[in-house]
Write a structure and sequence with these properties.
Layout: H1 3-12, E1 17-18, H2 20-27, H3 31-44, E2 47-51, E3 54-57, H4 64-71, E4 75-77, H5 79-85, E5 96-100, E6 105-109, E7 112-118, E8 127-131, E9 136-140, H6 142-154, H7 162-170, H8 181-189, H9 194-204
Parallel strand pairs: 5-7
Antiparallel strand pairs: 1-3, 2-3, 4-5, 6-7, 8-9
Length: 205
């Protein structure tokens, strides 16, 4: 197989991140052939191994958000990164933070940290698919990003951002005016945590 044709086929299929099994099926290869080609092309520079059993095109790297979704599944972007994405906090966020129903994990790829935090299965909801011409990824809606973040603040596993809490309580910042308070409360109740309920009550009342 010619590397240039392989690249074109993967791009045409919108499959810039893939497993060896997906690669084998697309190109109708035996397992040993797929393994050999992948290992060879990692050395040649066509592919990068994100982690064991997951590859991407070095020539056409996906966005950090797309990598975050695929690096550890199931997951969706949330917490500080999502709050920064929606401009609900003033700070720049360099770690890609995600919620997952699996155990907590952390990965480093291309000097970027990908942080996955466990939430209960009943609270694993409230995310949307963001589509642009360049990328497509799952991210919490603004209200769920707030609920997820405050949940970890209540666990004392995330430092609270004073500016965010002030903006939420006063609803004075233009980026918080469109937030649906009732939706935040609905998401918060999914966690069934009294400390979180008290925190949210103090913020919104």
């Amino acid at each position: 197989m010619k590397p240039i044709k392989v690249r074109e086929e993967l791009i045409n299929r919108h499959l810039r991140i893939f497993t060896p099994e997906e690669f084998r099926r697309i190109f109708d290869l035996a397992s040993y052939q797929s393994k050999y080609f992948l290992e060879t092309q990692v050395k040649e520079g066509l592919f990068i191994r994100l982690k064991k059993g997951l590859y991407t095109l070095q020539t056409d790297l996906p966005s950090e958000e797309e990598i975050a979704n695929k690096l550890y599944m199931p997951s969706y972007i949330s917490f500080e990164y999502a709050l920064g994405y929606y401009q609900l906090i003033p700070e720049m966020v360099y770690t890609i933070t995600s919620a997952t129903s699996k155990p907590t994990r952390k990965f480093i790829f291309n000097n970027i940290a990908y942080d996955y935090r466990t939430i209960k299965t009943d609270a694993y909801t409230g995310y949307i698919l963001k589509n642009t011409e360049q990328k497509s990824f799952l991210i919490a809606d603004p209200e769920k990003a707030i609920a997820d973040y405050l949940y970890f603040v209540s666990l004392r596993k995330s430092p609270h951002v004073e500016r965010l809490l002030e903006n939420l309580s006063q609803q004075g910042y233009y980026k918080t005016k469109g937030l649906e308070k009732k939706l935040v409360l609905q998401y918060v109740h999914l966690f069934e945590r009294k400390a979180l309920d008290r925190l949210v009550h103090a913020i919104f009342t």
